[in-house]
Amino acid sequence: MKSGVKRFMRNVLFIIILVSSLAKINQILSPKYIYANSSWPTTSSYKQFYKMEKNSIDVLFLGSSVCVNAFSPQEIYNRYGIRSYNLGSEQQSPVLSYYWLKEALRFQKPKVVVIDTKFCYQYKESYGLLNMSEGLVRKCLDPMRWSMVKAEAVNDICRLDKTQSRKSYYFTNIRFHTRWKSLTDYDFKPSYFSEAPLKGFGPLSDMGPSEYETFVPSDSDARSDMMPTMQEYLEKTAQLCRENQVKLVMVNLPKNADDDGIHNTLTQFAAEQGADFYDLCEKSNYEAIGAVLPKESALRHANIWGAVKLSDYIGGLLAETYEVPSVEDEQWEETKDYYEYVKDRCNLQFETDFSEYLKMIDNENFTVFLSVKDEGVKALTKETRAGLRALGIETRFKGKYRDSFYAVISHGEVVSEAAGGEKLNYAGSIGDQALSFSVVSAGHDCGNVSSIVLNGTEYSQNKRGMNIVVYDEQTRKVVDSVSFDTHDDLKATRK
Amino acid sequence: MDYLSFVFYAFVAASVLVYYIVPVRFRWVVLLAGSMYFYCRLVKDVRTLLIFLVSVLLGFAFGLLIEKQRNKVTLFFAVFISLFVLIGLRFTDFFPAVRAWRDGFDWLVPVGVSFYSLQLAAYLADVYRGKISAQRNPLKFVLFISFFPQIIQGPVPRYEQLGEQLFRGNRYDSRNIIKGIQLIIWGFFLKLMIADKAAVIVNTVFDNYERYEGFYILVAAVLYSIQLYTDFLSCVTLSQGTAQLYGISLVNNFDHPYFSTSIQEFWRKWHMSFSFWLRDYIYIPLGGNRKGKFRKYVNLILTFAVSGIWHGGNLRFLFWGILHAVYQIVGGLTYGVRNRLYERAGIKADSWFRKGIKMFVTFYLVMLGWIIFRAERLKAGIWMIRSMFCKFNPWIFFNDALFKLGLDWKECVVLFASVVVLAVVSFLQCRFELREKILEQNLVVRWTIYLAAVWVIWIFGTYGYGFNAQDFIYGGF
Predict the structure, then answer these.
(1) pTM to 2 decimals?
(2) Contact, A210 vs A294, CB < 8 A?
(3) A20 touches chain B (CB under 8 A)
(4) Strands A413-420, A404-410: parallel, antiparallel or unpaired by DSSP?
(5) Which of A73, A115, A474, B321 is 20 to 30 A from A361 via CA?
(6) CB within 8 A of A6, min separation 6: which ones?
(7) In terms of CA atoms, which chain A residue is nearest residue B452?
(8) Interface of A with B in 25-54 (CB under 8 A)
């Protein structure tokens, strides 16, 4: 009997070890969408959502990628003290919006839910009833914690899309085990993918078009029916909002649908459901946003400057029309600096003043590579020398006319620097082997070249003066490459 | 519900639990109920189930009749009836128009007919020979034929080996559970780490054979040899593992056939249950080697022709079967010459070198046969063999061309490593009973082996999104 019990306990222990190890393996194999690999980082955004204090979020944003890029919770908090969170994701159709709202209501009591209406209409015929590709359904739903809500969502999704496998949601290895071929450092480090200081916002920095022709409604009889499944789930969302005393606000973001039929249908739908609808394609609404093209693009996937304007607009509405209160909350206070760094990162590519530039790149999140070609000191001013010293560079540039010079600065510390009359080379790697680099600097008389190669790609402008390449550790991308003519007029050059 | 599915193992777990709860003398009923449930889940049409049951019950009735009046006419008639559906299937395969017509009546062909027909025929012959007594309980007889772990792909069991194990009710022994699970894990490894991975490259080349020449054919042929072996071995291993959970031992179907040093030896080690069936119920009744060399060769050709046609009713399989007979005939005729050549070269009879040459040549000859076996038509198979010998393109081993056949280099490394594991395990199995050896180790070693095996299959296996674990090859026969 005793040996039977002992054997039973051993078997139970073995099963526990087996199941927990397989769960851990599945966690490692599942894809993680973070700022380093995605402009719409659902993994970190949704994991961060679960870490927010209960009942501390007053506004939720739901919808597709345009919503993720349009509304910055930090910007809204900074201007209006309104606490919001962006739960949007790529191609998020009303089906997934509904389930994420249902999930969110388990932890939060928002006063307003803002939902973007782009995916109420068919995006691609091949996407079927869900109106989303399978991969993006997974991207949106996989980070949701297991609960009856998720089980219900999986059931519904597999009912609507027969090509999907219910089992693959429960046993994610069925879907993702081939990722073993492309695992990276962040697959093994939960800290990399469980924090999102931007609270679901996805900043972009591409310039917009030079103009946009706004939409003026002209045909009040036109109608354009939503996809039946989309309408069904939008109705469910409206019902859910009513049951939880949440105000539903629908928005049609600029340039998503400039169409009388869509405008009228959504207006009517909102009225029937007790919701409000703002068509931001409409001339008066768009002009109220105040975005100036091409830099402040609020069109389709808004860039960060357009998002600032959109966030200001929606924040104003939330404060004045919906009386969402202003509350000081440490969860938003502590991420203010991070948000400023993100804006600086996006603004870097426009900065042409060397002195200002040196201040902007003085940030722990940047790895900075400097390499002189030809001549690097004649035009340096007191401010620029101070700026270089502030970065931690110890080289005294006096007497270094036409000398070579390089420096590599990471996490606020100088990794290596050198100056001299000969050609200089330095190579290495930074950040758990994620970035391999080589830097070459040659002054006027010893080669006259600058090279900064990161992961096999040349980034240096290779122009006379100080060539600078800025690599962002958060997004794991080169965010700027510029050269300043430190021989003549400190003019900035970017290809 | 196939042997790789979650549903199948949930069913097995539930039935094992019920099996050991129920009193010993009724445990065979649990097996019968489970087997019937499994078979009903496989068939799409109730008429198929009826045909199956009628075939089995006819076999049962004939067994009793043959035991009562032992005469050859009754035996032949009974065997013919037992094999009727299988013979009809294979015969109509030769005529495309008839085959097309027949495909509209697929309910006529019960699942597992290629295997249980042989089982019935063997049973009737053994009753006739007095080797066994006819079973008097029709339900027990149905269980013997329909026992679910082996109904789809064998092995083809003999009544004297399997019957008693099924009917006596086996007592619970935790070692059976552990050994059964060991076999199931090993079966999954063979299927998902080797067979299905190799299949990716095999399918690319064989399904587009005109685009590939020379060494491409050789690589695909070698991989197909490995794929076919591990696919079939995995299915048998899973069957054995499942049966072991109930305390039932199914016969081995393979004995490291690619270590064979002659084609004769190969057929003593490949698909053994079927080979021995051919020997006992075709070759020996025809006279075997007892009627002189010429008759022996004729009997070989007839036996292997039957083997070929059993695999499929078309020229390709017939050719393949007869090819193996020809191999053995030529091997017999040249035995003396080959020995003299070895002696002249100073290669001793018991040397590893000579054994290695023989193993290599045997494998090569078998591999050539597998090209015909796998090709879409006999003509295509011959074309591929000719291309393999006539086109010289060794650069494909150096210019990454092999990584463009469906498996990238990482998957190829995994496949290679898995084949090495198979080779090592096979080598060890020749020396001792490996499963027993594992059971003798301490807890940490045993658990490490089991966990590592599961982890490796979980991560690197060929399944899920982007892969469809291939239907077992021999499920089609």
Answers:
(1) 0.90
(2) yes
(3) no
(4) antiparallel
(5) A73
(6) none
(7) A18
(8) 25, 29
Beta carbons of A18 and B458 less than 8 Å apart: no
State in Å, rounded, how far the first CA of chain B is from the last one.
Answer: 18
Task: Write out chain A residues lying below 8 Å of B8, CB-based.
Answer: none
Q: Which two tokens stand for residue B288?
A: 């075997």
**What band does B1 get if pLDDT is binned at 50, 70 and 90?**
confident
Decide if A14 touches B, using CB distance below 8 A: yes
φ/ψ (deg, to 5) at A59: -135, 135
| Amino acid letter, residue B148 | F
How many contacts does A have with B, using Cβ atoms within 8 A? 44
B376 contacts: CB under 8 Å, gap ≥ 6: B206, B207, B209
CB atoms near residue B409 (< 10 Å) = 11
- Who's near B158: CB < 8 A, 6+ residues apart? B122, B126, B251
Alpha-carbon radius of gyration of chain A: 26
Q: Residue written as tokens 């290779």? A: A462
Contact residues, B window 404-463, toward A, CB-based 8 Å cutoff: 408, 410-411, 443, 447, 450-451, 454-455, 458-461, 463
Length of chain B equals 477
B-interface mutation test, from A27, A178, A182, most B Cβ less than 10 A away: A178
The position carrying tokens 């100080």 is A466
The ipTM estimated for the assembled molecules is: 0.88
Residues of chain A found within 8 Å of residue B458, distances taken between Cβ atoms: 22, 25, 173, 177
Is the pLDDT assigned to residue B473 strictly greater than 80? no
Please tell me the distance in Å from B238's CA to the nearest CA on chain A. Answer: 20
Half-sphere CA count of B427, side-chain side, radius 13 A: 6
Report residues of chain A scoring pLDDT below 50: none
> How many residues can be counted in chain A?
495
Structure confidence by residue, pLDDT tens digits, B73-127: 999 999 999 998 898 888 888 888 888 887 777 777 888 889 999 999 999 999 9
Contacts B408 to A, Cβ<8 Å = 181
Q: How far is A131 from chain B (nearest CA, A)?
A: 21
Kindly write down the DSSP assignment for every residue of B77-107, as one continuous string.
Answer: HHHHHHHHHHHHHHHHHT-HHHHHHHHTTGG
| CB of A24 less than 8 A from some CB of B | no
SS (H, E, C) A362-406: CCCCEEEEEEEEECCCCCCCHHHHHHHHHCCCCCCCCCCCCCEEE
- Smallest Cα distance from A207 to chain B, Å: 38
- By Cβ distance, the residue of A7, A18, A25 closest to B459 is A25
Write out chain A residues lying below 8 Å of B449, CB-based. Answer: none
| Mean pLDDT calculated for residue range B206-222 | 95
Q: Do B451 and A17 touch (CB under 8 A)?
A: yes
Tens digits of residue pLDDT in A252-299: 999 888 889 999 999 999 999 999 999 999 999 999 999 999 999 999
Q: Is A177 in Cβ contact with B464 (below 8 Å)?
A: yes
Residues in chain A within 8 Å Cβ distance of B411:
181
Choosing among 3.30.70.270, 3.90.1640.10, 3.40.50.1110, 3.30.470.20, the CATH entry for A32-342 is 3.40.50.1110
Where in chain A are the domains? Answer: 1-30, 32-342, 351-493
3-state secondary structure of B2: coil
Beta-strand runs (E) in A211-282: 247-252, 276-279
Residue B284 burial class via C-beta count within 10 angstroms: exposed 0-12, middle 13-18, buried 19 and up: middle
Residue type, B135: Q
Kind plus residue range of the DSSP H or E element containing B126: helix B113-129
